């Protein structure tokens, strides 16, 4: 059975991604000699800037913090953009928003024309620090989709395949969904749909409920079992 009350791994990933993004920013500031935002010197002492240069320095800082600022007019990375910095920025933004599979992230990088070698190195690094983890992603996806949408194992498998998760990780994640879980999910869905069918003939109710369960991926055998019980009540 899928455990209830487990900590939301998506939230942990967002927090970890944000922390790594901050660490990467501090590292870039240190290497450039700029003070970090907490006031700690990031390099050798430097003279106070001429006030006339403040605007230019602010623009430069924004560019360093946002590698996408190096993009050309079509939104693609410009010739001066470091491919790994661009890739890292894209990946961290997406992971901060929500947990994603490695395949989804690789696709996003390819759409931004990040070179394959740079994309691979960045994704490998993210896997090393645990921010990209298809095993954890699959488990979180199954837990969320099964509890919130009442999807069948078949439907969950199809979704994870579409997200590029490999078979072993999918099998491990789906092992948490028991036959009892599927019966409970199908029953809850049928009962919910049935409440909007008052006054309809039993055959009409059966066809509509069977269609709703089929769209969630439930087998014909399980559908017959559940509807026999639900329509008797």
From TrEMBL:
Stretch list, region Disordered: 1-113
GO CC field: cytoplasm
Family as reported in the entry's similarity comment: Belongs to the RecX family.
GO biological process terms on file: regulation of DNA repair
Domain RecX second three-helical per the UniProt entry, residue ranges: 133-174
Location within or outside the cell: Cytoplasm
Residue ranges occupied by any RecX first three-helical domain in the UniProt entry: 87-126
Species of provenance: Microlunatus endophyticus
PANTHER family per the UniProt record, alphabetical: REGULATORY PROTEIN RECX FAMILY PROTEIN
UniProt keyword list: Cytoplasm
Basic and acidic residues bias locations: 45-56, 101-113
Domain RecX third three-helical: residue ranges: 180-227
Protein name (database record): Regulatory protein RecX
């Amino acid at each position: 059975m899928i455990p209830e009350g487990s900590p939301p791994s998506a939230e942990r990933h967002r927090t970890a991604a944000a922390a790594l993004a901050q660490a990467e920013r501090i590292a870039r500031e240190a290497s450039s000699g700029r003070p970090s935002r907490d006031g700690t010197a990031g390099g050798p002492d430097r003279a106070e800037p001429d006030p006339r240069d403040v605007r230019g320095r602010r623009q430069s800082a924004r560019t360093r913090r946002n590698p996408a600022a190096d993009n050309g007019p079509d939104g693609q990375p410009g010739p001066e953009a470091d491919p790994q910095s661009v890739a890292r920025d894209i990946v961290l933004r997406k992971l901060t928003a929500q947990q994603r599979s490695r395949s989804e992230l690789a696709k996003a990088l390819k759409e931004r024309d990040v070179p394959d070698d740079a994309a691979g190195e960045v994704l490998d690094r993210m896997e090393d620090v645990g921010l990209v983890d298809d095993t954890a992603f699959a488990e979180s996806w199954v837990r969320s989709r099964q509890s919130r949408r009442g999807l069948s194992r078949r439907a969950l498998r199809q979704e994870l395949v579409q997200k590029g998760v490999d078979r072993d990780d999918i099998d491990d994640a789906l092992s948490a969904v028991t036959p009892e879980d599927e019966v409970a999910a199908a029953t809850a869905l049928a009962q919910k749909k049935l409440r909007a069918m008052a006054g309809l003939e039993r055959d009409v109710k059966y066809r509509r409920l069977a269609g709703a369960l089929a769209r969630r991926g439930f087998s014909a055998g399980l559908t017959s079992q559940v509807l026999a019980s639900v329509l008797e009540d």
